[in-house]
Structure formats: structure tokens, C-alpha cells
């Protein structure tokens, strides 16, 4: 039997004719109106009946044959395909009324979590460098040179672009006193992926991990994704101290920010850092050292990394170009003890494959040609000025209302503001056009001191003055309520 009803299609000029014909025929077949084995008229006939070109018809029929709606029998014609009587669209019952598909326990916890805020680029948003001061012209010149290299269009390797790893190893050895060679470095998608990789490769579900309290919530979340049991180690304004470490522990990992505690800003003294290394070696605990912004120290020289303090350190060192260059790069790095390189590489391959080559090659050249060190030197001066300005504003306008927690600062500063609802205060501050993070949000369990963390790198003088005035009036408003 042959199909005769194709004449009935009402074609319009809003959509490609081939697409309309495809939709009409696939609809007839999948809804069971045209049954298996029916023969279609010849393509020439369809074309003349519909007043369209034969090429359009053959292209639509070709696509329908490729997808199984139709089947072509050489020498005989085109027929309706098989199997649609048991594969009707109405037979697919998906209960859209349920709120969520079935999620894992972790998925459920993510669904309950508040959405990350929309304050990503406001003055005082944490972790954003001064993007206006980034040497965009030099960067673009290097990127243009690199993008002409055909070698960078293909695959390269999961470990990361070798010239970048070489340049980075040189920089880390000299500037951060990290003991490493390029073969120990894995280039990651930001430090965030580095933390996730550590969790994935080292932790079994439900195992214990020690975290600084207060501490970086991004690290806690990455660890919790693996169902880690987090145990808080309390840290105060002076940084982590060995007396806060448990004498015995079953924890496999401890996440630390020894050179500049996140977020309070304390710096572990050299003897304390050696005690931490000794404790980790004795208790068999891996230390994940997140060296997120140590390039920016304003009292003397940057503090050397924990990793390089001993030749036998149980440390997985990580860093990122998010703060030293710009966050949208999404390039971070891990420096691993050699035996860990292979499993981490395989995990990286399975997680997201290679990191983008063009960006890696541009960073490599940026370091090799000295732009990186120059930029860091300039940013150290600039951020120090901003920090001094902000500190002076705080001293003069927030005296008696708020106290800065630590003497040191990288790109942010924490204020303790006793007695306020800091979540509400930060919400109001963001509504007024400023960024910031409530101090209490960095704590797990127990008493949560109140205050606000302010990132000052991404602010100008007028914004800092306006921000501190705004904060002053918001704190006073809360005190009056
Ligand atoms: C302490 C700390 N570690 C890691 C990261 C993640 O950095 P990345 O952008 O490289 O993923 C951040 C981001 O702000 C951070 O503050």
C-alpha cells in the first residue's frame, strides 16, 4: 500500500522546507499513523506534488532513513520503518510532577545548598584580583603568537603542557622554595580541581579528613563530595598551631593554608610548620597545602612553602593562577610526591581530560619572558597600598564597631563584628552593590564568630571609602534594631 496523504502537508516559509518535511513524516511514523511497510511515493512525485525541489525531498528522506523512521529497499522504493508500534512517544511516561529525579545523598545535599551568589565581580568580592591592572596588551600579544601554532590545536598530554610545567617548576623552586621538578607537576582546572583530585585519589567514602576551622568552604565541599567525615581543627588569628592538632588521628588527609590562613590571614611560624610536618609524618596524614595567595605578603618576603621545608615532606602542594593572573584562566597546579603522579594523572584523564593548550602555552611564555614576575611585583605594591588605605578607613570609620582579625593580608581582610547577624549584614551589603562573605560561613560546628571578609584587590579608592561608609551605617542599623 502506498501513502497518498503527503499532498496534505501545509508548508510555510518560516522554517526550512527540508525540516518541515522531516518533522511531518517522522511525526506520522512515530505516532503510528503510518504503519510499518507502507510505501512512500517516489521522491520526484512528492517534490512535484508539494511544489518543492527534489533535492529537498531526497535530503529529508535520507535523514529519515538514517534515523530509522523509513527504510530504503533498493529497486523497490522507500518504506515506513519497523518497530514504531512498540516505541510510541506517548508510551514514555516520565513523572514530571515529582520535584527532583532520584538523587544520591550527595546530590540531595547539593539540591538543598544555597545557589552560589551573584556577587562575583563586586568591589570586595573575595578572590578577585585587580583585573584593571592586568597587562592585557602583553597577554594578548603572546596569545596571538600562540594561537598561530598548529601544534596547540591537537591533544598534548593529561599532565599539562611541558614548557608550562618547566616554567612553573622554576618559579616555584625560586619564589616559593618548593622542591620539585616538572615531572611532579600536574596542571589542573584551577585549585578547585586539584582539591577534588586529592579527595578522589586518596579518600575512601566516609574516611576522616582534618580541615582548618574556620576554613575554605570550597575545599570542604570538594571533600564532602566523597562523603568525607570532616573534623575541625581550630585556628585563630595567628594561624594553625601544632597544639591544636590531635595527638592521634585516623584522618588520611589534612587541608591546610600555612603561609596565609584562609580566611583569617594568620601565618604559621617556621617552627610551627616544622612541627606540623613532623606530626603529619608521625601520624601518617597527607597534608594538602593550598598556597592560594602567598605571593602577596606585605611584611617582608613571601613565606616559603611548607612542601619545601623538608626533603621528605608528606605534602601535596597546590596553587593557582586565579589570583596571580586572572580567575577566568582556570589554570591551577598540583605538585605531587612522585609515586602519586600516575594515579592522579589517570584521575585527571577520567575527570576532564586535558587542560586547554592555548591558555597553558600563553602562561608558559608569560612566565618565560618575565611578565609574570613583573606583574607580581607591581601587584604586591598595588595591593599593599589598597590594604593600607582600607585599614586606615576601618580604623577611622569602624572604630568601636569592627576589628580587623590579623595583621597580614593577601587580597582580603577579615573584620570581626561582634553581635551582628553577619549573613543578613552581608546580604544588605551586597544589595548596596558591594561583595563580601560572612565570617560565620567559614566555620563548622560550635560557636561561629560574626564578621565579614572583604576582598580589596578588586576595588578602587572611591569604592573602598563608599563601602566602609555603607558598612558603618549597616552595622549601626543592626545595633539599633
Ligand atoms: C583558599 C582558596 N583555595 C582555592 C581556591 C580556588 O581557586 P581556583 O580559582 O584556582 O579554583 C580559592 C578561590 O578563591 C581559594 O580562596
TrEMBL record:
Keyword NADP: no
CDD domains: AAT_like (cd00609), WHTH_GntR (cd07377)
Keyword Iron belongs to the record: no
Top-level lineage group: Bacteria
Domain HTH gntR-type: 15-83
Gene Ontology MF annotations: DNA binding; DNA-binding transcription factor activity; pyridoxal phosphate binding; transaminase activity
InterPro entries: Aminotransferase_I/II_large (IPR004839), HTH_trans_reg/aminotransferase (IPR051446), PyrdxlP-dep_Trfase (IPR015424), PyrdxlP-dep_Trfase_major (IPR015421), Tscrpt_reg_HTH_GntR (IPR000524), WH-like_DNA-bd_sf (IPR036388), WH_DNA-bd_sf (IPR036390)
Keywords from the UniProt entry: Aminotransferase, DNA-binding, Pyridoxal phosphate, Transcription, Transcription regulation, Transferase
PROSITE patterns in alphabetical order: HTH_GNTR
Family statement: In the C-terminal section; belongs to the class-I pyridoxal-phosphate-dependent aminotransferase family.
Protein name, UniProt field: PLP-dependent aminotransferase family protein
Species for this entry: Halioglobus maricola
Amino acid at each position: 500500500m502506498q501513502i497518498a496523504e503527503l499532498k496534505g502537508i501545509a508548508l510555510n516559509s518560516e522554517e526550512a522546507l527540508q525540516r518541515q518535511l522531516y518533522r511531518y513524516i517522522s511525526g506520522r511514523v512515530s505516532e503510528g499513523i503510518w504503519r510499518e511497510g507502507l510505501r512512500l511515493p517516489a521522491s520526484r512525485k512528492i517534490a512535484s506534488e508539494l511544489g518543492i525541489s527534489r533535492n529537498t525531498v531526497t535530503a529529508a528522506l535520507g535523514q529519515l532513513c538514517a534515523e530509522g523512521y523509513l527504510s530504503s529497499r533498493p529497486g523497490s522504493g522507500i518504506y515506513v520503518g519497523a518497530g514504531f508500534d512498540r516505541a510510541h512517544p506517548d508510551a514514555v511516561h516520565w513523572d514530571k510532577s515529582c520535584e527532583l529525579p532520584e538523587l544520591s545523598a550527595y546530590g540531595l545535599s547539593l539540591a538543598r545548598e544555597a545557589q552560589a551568589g551573584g556577587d562575583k565581580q563586586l568591589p570586595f568580592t573575595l578572590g578577585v584580583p585587580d583585573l584593571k591592572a592586568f597587562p592585557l596588551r602583553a597577554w594578548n600579544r603572546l596569545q596571538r603568537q600562540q594561537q598561530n601554532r598548529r601544534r596547540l590545536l591537537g591533544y598534548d598530554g593529561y599532565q599539562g603542557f611541558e614548557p608550562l610545567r618547566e616554567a612553573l617548576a622554576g618559579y616555584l623552586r625560586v619564589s616559593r622554595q618548593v622542591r620539585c621538578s616538572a615531572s611532579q607537576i600536574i596542571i589542573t582546572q584551577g585549585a578547585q580541581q586539584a582539591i577534588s583530585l586529592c579527595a578522589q585519589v586518596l579518600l575512601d567514602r566516609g574516611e576522616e579528613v582534618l580541615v582548618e576551622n574556620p576554613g575554605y568552604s570550597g575545599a570542604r565541599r570538594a571533600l564532602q563530595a566523597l562523603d568525607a567525615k570532616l573534623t575541625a581543627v581550630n585556628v585563630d588569628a595567628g594561624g594553625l598551631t601544632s597544639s591544636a592538632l590531635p595527638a592521634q588521628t585516623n584522618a588520611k588527609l589534612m587541608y591546610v593554608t600555612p603561609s596565609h590562613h584562609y580566611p583569617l590571614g594568620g601565618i604559621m611560624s617556621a617552627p610551627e610548620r616544622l612541627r606540623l610536618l613532623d606530626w603529619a609524618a608521625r601520624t601518617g596524614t597527607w597534608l594538602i597545602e593550598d598556597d592560594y595567595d602567598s605571593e602577596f605578603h606585605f611584611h617582608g618576603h613571601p613565606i616559603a612553602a611548607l612542601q619545601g621545608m623538608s626533603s621528605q615532606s608528606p605534602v601535596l602542594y597546590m596553587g593557582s593562577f586565579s589570583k596571580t593572573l586572572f580567575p577566568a584562566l582556570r589554570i591551577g597546579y598540583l605538585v605531587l610526591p612522585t609515586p602519586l603522579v600516575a594515579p592522579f594523572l589517570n584521575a585527571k584523564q577520567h575527570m576532564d581530560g586535558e587542560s586547554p593548550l592555548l591558555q597553558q602555552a600563553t602562561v608558559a611564555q608569560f612566565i618565560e619572558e618575565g611578565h609574570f614576575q613583573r606583574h607580581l611585583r607591581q601587584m604586591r605594591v598595588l595591593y599593599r597600598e589598597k590594604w593600607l588605605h582600607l585599614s586606615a578607613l576601618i580604623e577611622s570609620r569602624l572604630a568601636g564597631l569592627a576589628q580587623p582579625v590579623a595583621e597580614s593580608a593577601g587580597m582580603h581582610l577579615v573584620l570581626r563584628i561582634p553581635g551582628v547577624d553577619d549573613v543578613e549584614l552581608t546580604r544588605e551589603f551586597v544589595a548596596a552593590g558591594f561583595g563580601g562573605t560572612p565570617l560565620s560561613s567559614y566555620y563548622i560546628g560550635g560557636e561561629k564568630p560574626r564578621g565579614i571578609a572583604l576582598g580589596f584587590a578588586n576595588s578602587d579608592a572611591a569604592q573602598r571609602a563608599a563601602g566602609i561608609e555603607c558598612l558603618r551605617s549597616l552595622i549601626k542599623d543592626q545595633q539599633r534594631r
